[in-house]
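#dry-run=false #mode=assembly
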Amino acid sequence: MQDEDFPVQARALNHWFGRGEARKQALYDIDLRIARGSLTVLVGPSGSGKTTLLTLLGCLREVQQGSVILLGHELHGATPALATALRRRLGFIFQAHNLHESLTAAQNVMMGVQVLGRVDKARAQAAAAHVLGLLGLSERLDYLPANLSGGQKQRVAIARALVGNPELVLADEPTAALDRDSGANVVELLKRLGQARGTTTIMVTHDNRILDRADRILTLEDGRIVGDEARGG
Amino acid sequence: MSRLLQALFGRLPIGWLQLTHSRTRFAAALAGVAFANVLVFVQLGIMQSMATATLTPYGFFRADVMISAPDANAMAEGGNVARQWMLQAMAHPEVTSGMGLFLANVNWQRAGEGLSLTTFGIDPAQPEFLAPELAAKTAPLQMRMAGLLDRLARGLPRDEAAGIRPQAPLSFETSGQTLTLYDSFAGGGGFGGDGYMLVSDQTFLSLFPGRSSAAPDHILLRLRPGADPERVAAELRGLISDKTLRIRSYAAAAQEDLSYQQTQRPTGVIFGFGVLIGVLVGIVIVYQVLSTDVADHMREYATFKAMGYGHRFFLGIVFEEALILGLLGFVPGALIGGGLLTLMGRITTLPLAVTPGMVLSVLAGTLVFSILSGAIATRRLAGADPADLF
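#status=ok
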């Protein structure tokens, strides 16, 4: 079963920004297959198209040309309903934490559970507390984002992405706001999820400590994949 | 509140948490909605008072069919109707009785200011043409130069009006003659005069020597019980030789007067526009509050959308906010609006008040427009890629 072994596949993927005269190509002929349970890192200079590729693979941007098959579904021409259903099976960690300022840490994480349907409040709370505990935030459950440090906020956002047991985690510079220990902790958590549950991770990062733990490193330059290096992990 | 909403929606009450996150902004938003409500209430109240004031004189009489001059758009407008048409109408088998109704303004020059009383001349021997409250008080009208006074007339001290009794009458001079008031009734000043007065037709003709008993302003008819006034009015239109006369059921005459006041007279049109502008300003305020809130939370919504929340979820949040703002803003809006109307009513002695119908329609309007505004405000979210919203 090809699709099960490769939750993400892209073929002849091109992408443009802008319209008319200002139209500028951001990605050229991307072909890739990402193996299930692996930790893949995207590197490259800023403006090389890493985030664009990540959002295309993660169903956050409409595919213009070429093909992306995500968890067995073609994204080119996908209906909004299919896109919404697929997004629920992903965990997206954004560069900015994007927490809701009116919700506490635990409530923000619960939003990642409730998206899966009507869930008993106590169970959603327990799940949120558990994941926040794994990320060292047991003491901060009822804090509003305004009262958390930048690193703590980022860890809440990571907990929110992971609490729904995603099949695929897409992360855009998730460790930028984290100190050395927290960053290592997050990467270990993602590796453990990969081994235990087959959770696949694709991550954009400049962090050398993470490069050492990656299974595969893809290098982008000017919208093209210019390097593909397999690592032992 | 938060727990109640949680149970209601089966999810975190994000709308409530979002609105109450900043108390000052929440208060400002509520004040905006309340202000819109006050505006609509006051305009509706004025509009309503005109309707009440227009219909008040119709309430003095009990009639089934009214015959008026061709140019009588309102009760106090138009020329006379020859009494002979009443006799022709009486030939209809279902018409049981008829009465000429005279109408003119009497000026009561009081110390300081003059009082303009819309004065009706009626036949005191036919009390069946009067509302029960008036019918019971017609006995003194048999006397010459006797009258009943509207105790709610504008510019009349309340205790002075209430003190008028058959045993303690009050006299005043008008155009060289002395009129004596023997009792009072509840009328209420309108837009056309300060109040009302009821006299006998004989007294009326003495007050206005230029008028003739053969030409009253309107003719009122009573029908056999059970007869359909609309049908008889139509039949009378065929029966009476003068085809230019307006022969209408009494209820239709009142309704046509009202719609004439509201759509043809400048005051009615101005108040109608007042309501329209009040509603428009209200919609703009509610829309502004909700669309600003949506714009301020676009990043969070984009994140939720990226997590797999569908458009119904966002509509749910905005509707939740719309309901909270609509309901919580309505309460102070209705209270302040009602207070202002009562105050204005006291100053002008117009029948200004908040009616249950107004409360319901303003509340329903507030909620409908809040929800519509919310739906429009979330439209930008619907089509956009989450990645473009950050």
